[in-house]
């Protein structure tokens, strides 16, 4: 039993070291090859979190996904899938402030870094995005599945100390709103 415990502790330390190496790689963009969306999202979220921790801004990370998107891709092909993603991105850009940072993560999850946006304005933005999205989907006769947006806003808390944890929390909220 103590051997098993030692093994588990070693595995945890190895996992922690791997995460620390990954964070160090993201922190040092100059040494890593290329600028990816993931790295840019990490950096922007990290800087926004630092500003929020100092009390300079109010921060919310919002995650958005489209339900049944994979089903649409399998039934109607990737052209319709790409078209809906592109038009959804345009809708999100139209409703967000020009200070909001918008990313597409993992090819289909929208992430919005919202600074200095009140809860009331977030709700109005989300309502506008949702209404425009429903109007977009209604234009397609070929779509039989109930396609809707899942929106998960996660306000910043000082308990969240690194961007990976914040993003994971956002994805967890998004997955729970999807069910």
Number of helices: 6
Q: How much β-strand is present in the residues?
A: 15-25%
> Residue share in helices?
55-70%
Radius of gyration: 19 Å
Low-confidence stretches: none
Q: In one word, what is the shape?
A: globular
SSE series: HHEHHEEHEH
Number of separate strands: 4
Q: Taking all residues together, what is the mean pLDDT? A: 85
What is the terminal separation in angstroms? 39 Å
User: In terms of structural class, how would the helical and strand content be classed?
Assistant: alpha+beta
Biggest β-sheet: strands ordered side by side in the sheet: 2-3-1-4
Largest sheet: 4 strands, antiparallel
Notes on the protein architecture:
- With 179 residues, the chain is of the alpha+beta class.
- The chain has 6 helices and 4 strands; from the N terminus they run ααβααββαβα.
- A 4-stranded antiparallel beta sheet has the order 2-3-1-4, with helices on both faces.
- Helix 3 packs antiparallel against helix 4 (78-95) and helix 4 packs antiparallel against helix 5 (119-138).
- It is globular and about 60 Å long.
- The mean pLDDT is 85.
Secondary structure: elements and pairs:
Layout lengths: L1 H26 L9 H17 L5 E8 L2 H8 L1 H18 L5 E5 L3 E7 L3 H20 L10 E7 L7 H16 L1
Antiparallel strand pairs: 1-3, 1-4, 2-3
Helix pairs in contact: 3-4, 4-5
């Amino acid at each position: 039993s103590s051997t098993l415990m030692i093994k588990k502790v070693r595995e945890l330390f190895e996992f922690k070291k791997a995460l620390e190496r990954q964070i160090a790689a993201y922190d040092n963009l100059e040494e890593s090859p290329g600028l990816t969306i993931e790295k840019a999202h990490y950096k922007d979220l990290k800087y926004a979190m630092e500003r929020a921790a100092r009390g300079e801004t109010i921060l919310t990370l919002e995650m958005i996904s489209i339900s049944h998107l994979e089903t649409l891709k399998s039934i109607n092909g990737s052209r319709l899938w790409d078209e809906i993603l592109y038009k959804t991105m345009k809708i999100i850009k139209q409703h967000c402030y020009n200070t909001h940072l918008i990313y597409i993560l993992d090819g289909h999850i929208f992430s919005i870094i919202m600074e200095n946006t009140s809860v009331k304005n977030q709700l109005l933005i989300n309502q506008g995005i949702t209404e425009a999205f429903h109007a977009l989907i209604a234009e397609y006769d070929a779509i039989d599945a109930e396609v809707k947006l899942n929106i998960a806003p996660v306000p910043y808390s000082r308990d969240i100390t690194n961007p990976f944890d914040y993003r994971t929390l956002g994805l967890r909220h998004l997955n729970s709103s999807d069910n």
